[in-house]
Structures are given as C-alpha cells and as structure tokens.
Amino acid sequence: MKPTTPEAYAAAVVDVLANEFTDLAADPAVARVARDTIARHAASNGDRFEWIVDWPSVENWRLKSDRNQAGRIRLACYKATPTDADLALEATVNAHLAAL
Q: Which of 39, 45, 80, 88 is least enclosed, having the fewest CB within 10 Å?
C-alpha cells in the first residue's frame, strides 16, 4: 500500500534507505531528521530538495527531488567514478522509492 501522508511517505523512504545506509538504522536522531525533512518536502510538493545521505565530508550519496513526481525524491550517486555496484544500488533504491 502506498503511503497516503507526507509523514508516512517519509517513514517509508527512511525504511528503504536504512537497508543500505546503516547510520539511518543505527541513529534514531539521524532517522528523525531525515523523516522530518523528507515529510516537509513531500507536503510542500517542492521542486528542489537535497539531503546528503552519507557523511557531509564525503557527499557521495544524496537524496534529490524526483524530476517526474512533485514532492517525491530519488537517490543520486555523486561519486566521481561510480562502480557497477554503485549504479546498481542507485537503480535498486530508486525503484523502491518510485514504488512508494
């Protein structure tokens, strides 16, 4: 079942991401900030959004606005040279996010 509120959407996004980005699963404060930020974006149907998923000093993985669905997000790999595994992770996570 698709989430019907911005808060439910944000919680579902964090659940998807927590499988790959362990800080979201390990630190409730980080997960709460992510949920709050994503929920605000979903509620506003804003067209601009960016949230760094990994460490700010690394910035390899970011959540960005989904160009095809207002208020939704996608995962983007910003590595200078992404590996096949990176591209597969990006595609897999984005497929899960698009299904929400």
A: 80
